[in-house]
Amino acid sequence: MFGRYRGTFHHEDGDTLVEAEQNGSLLTYRRRCEGQTFERILVSKTGEIIINPVEPVNLPKDVTDFLQIEFSPMVIEPGVTQTIYLKFPVEIGVFLEAARDIEVLDIFGLGSQKYTLYGTPTNGVIARWYRSEIYTEVPAAGSLREGVMELSIHNASREWVEVSCVVFDSTDMKIYYGDFVAAAATMKIISPTLAETDFIDAPLRPGMVKSVELCVARKIPVIDRGYLMEWGFS
Q1: Residue 41: enclosing H or E segment and its boundaries?
Q2: Taking the mean position of all CA atoms in its chain, how far away is CA 4?
Q3: Which residues contact 147 (CB under 8 A, 6 or more apart)?
Q4: pLDDT at residue 221 tops 80
C-alpha cells in the first residue's frame, strides 16, 4: 500500500480499502477502515498521492505530540549501552503532492488508541501509550498496524537503573518503510530519574524509503531537540 501514485489505484487488505477512481476528468479518493469511511473528489493535472506511515499521535484526534512505549523492566549497569527492539503503533498518512505544495489528505489506522499521563497532573504531559515486548533481534511486524523501533539505551549515570518505559516527542520522529515500518532512537540515562531521548534519521535496513513527516506537510517549523524525561522511566 505504501508508495506514490499518479492516477487510479486500488488496495484492499481485509476490511481496509484505499483507492483512487477516475470519474471523467475528476479523481475520487476513497478510504474504508474498520467501518469508517472517508471520500474526497480531487482536481489534479500533475499531482501525486503519497501513502506512508506517520507519527502515531493523530487518532482519534490531535491530542498530543508525545509517544510512550512501556515494556518489561530492565536493570542496566552503570556505563553500559544496550540495543533492543520494540514495536510501536503505526498510523497511515495520505498526502497530495504537486510541484509547489504538499498537503495532508487523510490519516487513518487500525486498532484502538490509548493515552496516558506521563509525570504529575500539574506539570506532566499526555502521551499516546503503547505496550511492547522486548526483542533482541528485529521482530516480525504487520506494517499497517505496527512498526519496529531500534532503541539504543546508554546508562551514563553512576548507578544501576531500572527502565520500563521510554517517552518521545513525535515531532522529531523519522519513519522509514520497506518490507516493514521502522524507526531508530536513542535513550541516554543521566540519573535514576532523568533521561534524554531522540530519534535517528537513518533507515534500519538499506533501501528503505523515508516517510513524509506530518510537520513538513503542515508547514510547521520544528527544531530537533529530542525530549528530556524528567519524571522517571520505571
Answers
A1: strand 36-42
A2: 19
A3: 53, 87, 88, 89, 90, 141, 175, 180, 181, 182, 183
A4: no
pTM for this model (two decimals): 0.94
- Between CA 151 and CA 41 the distance in angstroms is 41
Q: What are phi and psi of 170, to 5 degrees?
A: -70, -15
Contact 41, 84 (CB under 8 A): no
- Cα–chain center distance at 159: 32
- Work out the percent of the chain whose per-residue pLDDT is above 70: 100
Q: Where are the beta strands (DSSP E) in 132-160?
A: 146-155
Q: Name the grid cell of 16.
A: 481496509
Respond yes or no on whether the N-terminal peptide bond of residue 60 is cis (omega within 30° of 0): yes
> What's the start-to-end Cα distance of the chain, in Å?
37
Max CA pair span of the chain: 68
Model pLDDT for residues 46-98, shown as the tens digit of each residue: 899 999 999 999 999 888 999 999 999 999 999 999 999 999 999 999 999 99
Question: From the DSSP assignment, how many helices (H) and strands (E) are in the chain?
Answer: 1, 19
